[in-house]
Amino acid sequence: MDIKNLTDDFGVEVRNFDCSKKIGYDELNLLKKTIQDRHFICFKNQKLDGNTLATFTKNFGKLEAYPEKDKTKGKIEIFNVSNVSEDGEHLDPDDQRVVLQKNNSRWHTDSSYRYLPSVFSILYGQETLPPEVEGGQTQFSNMLVAYDHLPEDKKNLLQPLHQVHSYNDIRRLEPSLPELTYEEKCNFPPVTHPIVRVHADRNFRKSLYFTSNTSLEIGGMSLEQGKELHKWLVDYISQPKFCYTHNWQKNDLIMWDNRVLLHRVIPYDYAKYRRAMIRGTVEGEVPVLGPFSYEVRSKNKIKI
Ligand SMILES: [Fe+2]
Asked: What is the mean pLDDT of each run of 10 residues along the chain (304 residues)?
């Protein structure tokens, strides 16, 4: 396996490694250490299907299931992140599956609407846009570095705040999406997470943790104040010095750490170009800790 850094702060590219094969103990440990230290891995030239992607994903934890029951025809744990149906049909830009992709052009971290948000997402590019075309890239922003560079007054302001995250509220941003069923709503009630996330597995280092693709409300603020602060955060973390933009090549497999990176897809011409990807997601096992969480305040007692 050949590993090369992509930026100074995060990201590596891996060549000469086959993710469809059983992974040895030492190789898996190296990959776990690499994703922990560098947060993003691109494995070049992979040959995967839903089954081998699921097997690869399970090396890193349990597979997370899709939140809506009838939106996928295949394995419920392998999501289609595409404007192409499972039967290969190029979907209309107004199709709800494409509208969900458009919503992902807002900065977010996957499944933040869960009390235990996902740890890793693993995305395989089956069909990608021609390299000369605008859009279709996946962009990442490093929340550990973004937090470190915040001015002190902003750190103090953000320290006690929580954002609301609601799967149902995607409908407020994308009103053409159909209502969730009562059961789906009950399964995913709104949750709040601290905007300053504390990482017990990183010596209690802090990062930013927020999204733009669900709710924009911030607890303890009026809706307008919350939106204003949210907009400031979006502009702040979009600065190129925090970001890496992944230009897709067919058969890339990318893996990222949702705890410390935000991501978004750069919009493209959904009617003209096909973009077909499948994703495995590693379920989270711990809640998001903030500066005032009991576990952080009593950190000598914490077990991780
Ligand atoms: Fe995403």
From this structure: 96 98 97 98 97 96 76 62 87 89 93 95 96 94 98 96 94 89 88 97 96 91 94 97 97 98 96 94 95 86 54
Q: What is the DSSP string of the chain?
A: -EEEESSSSS-EEEES--TTSPPPHHHHHHHHHHHHHHSEEEE-S----HHHHHHHHTTSSPBPPPSSTTS-SS-TTEEE-SSB-TTSPBPPTTSHHHHHHHHTTS-B-TTTTSSS--SEEEEEEEE---TTSS---EEEEEHHHHHHTS-HHHHHHHTT-EEEE-STTHHHHSTTSPPPPHHHHHHS--EEEESEEEEGGGTTEEEE---SSS---BTTS-HHHHHHHHHHHHHHHTSGGGEEEE---TT-EEEEETTTEEEEEPP--TTT---EEEEEEEPP-SPPB-TTSHHHHTGGG---
**Residue 142 CA, ligand 1 centroid: distance in Å:** 15
pTM for this prediction: 0.93
For residue 203, the CA-to-ligand 1 centroid distance in Å is 27
298 Cα–ligand 1 center, Å = 33
